[in-house]
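Deviations from the work plan: none for this task. Representative record:
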Amino acid sequence: MPTSSPSDRTKVRRHAERGAYDQDLIHSILDEGYVCHVGFVDGGHPYVIPTAYGRVGDQIYLHGSAASHMLGVLEEGPEVCVTVTLVDGLVLARAAFRNSMNYRSVVVFGKARLVTDPREKMEALRAFTNHITPGRWEEVRTPTEGEMKATSVLALPLNEASAKVRSGPPLDTDADCELPIWAGVVPIRAEAGEPVPDVRVHQDALPFDTARLARQ
Amino acid sequence: MPTSSPSDRTKVRRHAERGAYDQDLIHSILDEGYVCHVGFVDGGHPYVIPTAYGRVGDQIYLHGSAASHMLGVLEEGPEVCVTVTLVDGLVLARAAFRNSMNYRSVVVFGKARLVTDPREKMEALRAFTNHITPGRWEEVRTPTEGEMKATSVLALPLNEASAKVRSGPPLDTDADCELPIWAGVVPIRAEAGEPVPDVRVHQDALPFDTARLARQ
């Protein structure tokens, strides 16, 4: 499997055993998440903004209104940090000090690039839609030229990315394991509920099958 | 309900109609999330790190190993931005351009303060544990003096916080509503699965009831 060497920034320092630089793992975490958190500096202050994203190969794409403050700042090409976190479980230990969470996260550092090529931009918009629901782009009404103009798309390469993963049971001391307190892991998953059709949904529209949302 | 006036930074600019400064709403979003994303600037570069948190009144607490890089940076008292995001639904429109997500998010700006008072520190550790599972602190083995020393706790006031909420159906144009494409909302929830007991769980320990995790 392709791997990359950690840079000074992506090297996982705290709990280094949880760090991973494997591209397939990084891609799978990015593909499973719905929201990323974009960090940037504006006027010397840090900002962390949640937003949707899509991945094509070894780049992720961010988008937003051409009038968005965040997109405006990012178009200038400053350093950004984009983080995706999946909570997999609550790790309940017998000792409060040993409580933890099982998770998979990816942190990407880099400079975003404004996508100006119309073909790349359309491909990125396809990735946003199909990231949420595979195959959905092929069913929906694709963007007009006006809608394309109203949307800014930014690309961020994944060459400075790392994953961090914690899994498994709580790690209580032997002495604490003697305590009559339940300990273990409660799995947590983002589950889809029953789809709620729009009131104006067309009578010929096929119902939506949530099995389409299944992550690999 | 108590509200606060938005500061220049917390004022929601893009989709201002989604902005909210109501304290009860801000608290309820913070209480429902499991993970926050902490943004800070180190060496001029933005970092976004996922971590657990707890709330007591109008402050949130962050914690970590006294040896953590992030905690070390934050103890210096720089500006931070802490964001919590809950994904509530996938908003599938007939037009790709109108796809969206239903979510509730909180963004907090401020300077973190290292908690040195032992009583406040213990109260914060209680908040971390009971944030995940109400009442759990009262059951587990509480921290020793050594464990307290190994943990750094930081407080961040909520006086510069804002919420942003999107809910409801997709907003397709009238013309697009004529298309025979399913449109609507797929609700998304963080659901708990069957608890997995630790292999060494004591025979007298009561099983864990996931109903305890229910958010208000």
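The CA atoms of residues 58 and 159 of chain A lie 7 Å apart.
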